[in-house]
Amino acid sequence: MAGQAVAEKQVMVVGIDDSERSTYALEWTLDHFFAPCASDHPFKLVLVHSKPTPFSAIGLAGPGAAEVLPLVEADLKKIAARVVEKARELCSTKSVQDVIVEVVEGDARNVLCEAVEKHHASILVVGSHGYGAIKRAVLGSVSDYCAHHAHCTVMIVKRPKIKH
Fold first, then answer.
1. How buried is residue 88: exposed, middle or buried, by Cβ count under 10 Å (0-12/13-18/19+)?
2. Any alpha helices (H) in 10-150, and if so which ranges?
3. Does position 135 have pLDDT exceeding 60, yes or no?
4. Which of these, 17, 87, 97, 99, could form a disulfide with 22 (CB 3.0-4.6 Å)?
5. Which residues contact 115 (CB under 8 A, 6 or more apart)?
6. What sign has the CA pseudo-torsion 28, 31, 117, 50?
7. Top-ranked range on mean pLDDT: pick from 50-59, 73-82, 116-125, 141-150
């Protein structure tokens, strides 16, 4: 990179999954940070999808788990491929071509925080699943976890409530 006097762009990591809220968060981010800037985007965009392990997807491994695992793994790979394809299409429709997309196996909370470290991200964007208090207490909120553990600014994108 000879003669590069241009400052390195800051990195923005966006967590993506197969939910509508994730798609909304990515679209909102593209509209607010990338689309207005034509080709001179302020951030380098890294999209990260965490693919659950087959074991975590089926729960405890009991009798017959060995036969089921390859099917579960194939299913998780299909979902990951769909998530990536949809995200790339969305970026493309917003004229954002320069994007890195990663699929990393593991729990979304750890995967996203590790991606922040790996890419030296200055901001992490996650969607809000809008779980109720009980479901959030049981499942644990990815956005809550990242807000407390990621070593960067964390932006949680919420869908506006529909007014009736």
1. middle
2. 20-29, 54-58, 65-93, 108-119, 133-139, 142-149
3. no
4. 17
5. 13, 46, 48, 102, 104, 121, 124
6. positive
7. 116-125
Q: How far is 26 from 35, CA to CA, in rounded Å?
A: 12
Structure tokens at 91: 């970026």
pLDDT confidence of 1, banded at 50, 70, 90?
A: very low
* Residue 13 near residue 101 (C-beta atoms within 8 A): no
**Whole-Å CA distances, 106 to 8, 35, 51, 113:** 29, 31, 6, 11
In this structure, the number of other CB atoms found within 10 A of the CB of residue 143 comes to 25
Tokens of 42: 């302020």
For 81-132, write each residue's pLDDT tens digit. 999 999 999 999 998 888 999 999 999 999 999 999 999 999 999 998 766 6
